[in-house]
Amino acid sequence: MADVILMEKRGIPSAAICTDALKMSADAMAVIQGAPDYRYAVVPHPVSSLDADGIAAVAQLAAPQVMNILRGEAP
Amino acid sequence: MTEQQTALTAEDLVAAIEQCFENGWTDGLPVVPPIPSLVNRFLEHTDHSPTDVIWTMKQVKRGCTVQAAAINAAMAGCKPEHFPVVLAALEATVDEGWPGLGGWQSTTGGGPLLIVNGPVREPLGFNAKGNVFGPGFRANATVGRAMRLIIMNAYGVKPHALDQATQGFPGKFSLCIAENEEESPWEPLSVTLGHDAGVSTVSALHTRSTEHIDNRNTGDPASILNDIADTCGRIGAMTRRFRRVGVVIGPEHAQLLAKHGMSKQDVREHLAEHSGRTAGALRAAGRGEMAAVFQNTPGVSAFDEESVSGIDQVADDDLVTSVRTPDDVIVVVAGAANAGISTVVQTLGFPTKTIGTAVIRS
User: Fold this and answer.
1) Binary contact (A25, B161; C-beta < 8 A)
2) I need a surface site. Which of B7, B30, B297, B319 has the fewest CB within 10 A?
3) Global confidence as pTM
4) Does B162 touch chain A (CB under 8 A)?
5) Would the ipTM clear 0.90, i.e. be above it?
C-alpha cells in the first residue's frame, strides 16, 4: 500500500489490489502515508493457495476495479 | 520521599496503571507508569541525547528517540542500568535488516530473539542457565519486553492494524536469553560475529518459534546433530527454500559434541549439510516448488528461474537442503547442563545479510 501511494505522489498512476482479510492493515498504512481515503481494489481472501483457474477468477474481479481506479472513477 | 509522594494511595497507583492501558501503551499486561523522574534515571545511563533518533522506520514514517526507548524500558519494568542493553537490542534488531523489510508487520508473525553476551550478563542479572527461555529473571524478561513495547509504541506496529500477524507467537511478549559462556566449550556468539572477547553485546535473530530437541538417548555426536537437523529442516517452517536457523544448544549436548572433537564450525557444517527434506516429502506437503532455489536477498532477482524449471527433475528420494551455507546456522550455547536438550529457532525465508549485532555501551 505504501509503495502505491508513494508512486501516486510521484505522478505515476497506480492501483493496489488487496484481499479483504488485509483491509485493516491497508487502511492503517494509507493513513500513515497521508491518504486516508485511498481507494484500492479488493478481492476475496485467500489468493496465494489458488490454482491458475482460481487466480484467473480473482483477476476477473480485480481488473474492472483497477481500471476504474486508474480512470479516476469509483472502484 | 517528598510529602506529596507519601500522600499517594494504592488507588492512585492502580489509576496510573489503568491510565497506561487506556492510552494504548501496553502489551496486554500492566506496565510501570513512566513518570518523568523514573524515565530520567534511565537517561542517566547513556551518553546519547534524549532527542537522538536511534532508527527511523521509513514505511511507517516513525523513528524511536532515546527518550522514547527509555519510556518503554521503564514501562517494561527494566532497571535503569538495563537501558544500555535495550538500546543495543534495538540497534541489533535493526542491524539484522528485517524491520526495514516489513518483518515486524508480516503475517508470518515473528519477532527478535535477543542474545546477550559478555561481562554485563552477571552484574545485570541475565540468566544464561536453567529455564533460559522461561520466566523468573527480571533482566531477560524486561529487556525482551522493552523491545516489544518499542515496536508497538515508538513505531506504532500494533496487532489488528500494522502488525498483520496471523497468529504471532509467545516470544513476541519477550524473548531475551544470555549465552552460557561459562559452560560452553566454544567461543561465544559475539566472538563468532567479529567482536573482541570480553566485549558485551546484544545480537538479534528474527524468529517465529522455539522448538525443542529432547535427545538424552545417545552419546553419538552425529546422531544428536541429525536429530537437531531434523527440526532445522521442518517443512512447516519454510517460506522460501532457504532460511537461517538459530540453534541454541544445551551445555550437555555442546560438551558431548566438543568431547568428540567437534568445533562450532563442524556443527554448523553438519547441520547445513543435513537439514532439509526429500523432494518427495516436500511434494507430499504441497511444497514441491520449495525445491526451487531462491537467492539470498529478497526482491525480483530472488527468483532463480533456471533452478525452478529444474524442480521436476529432482528425484523423490533426493534431499533438498534448507540451509544455504554453514554461515546461516547461528549457534548459541544456553540452558542448564542437566539434560540433553537443545532448541531450534526458526527464522523467515530468504535470509537478510546476517544476524544483527551491536555493542552494549554502558
Assistant:
1) yes
2) B7
3) 0.91
4) yes
5) no
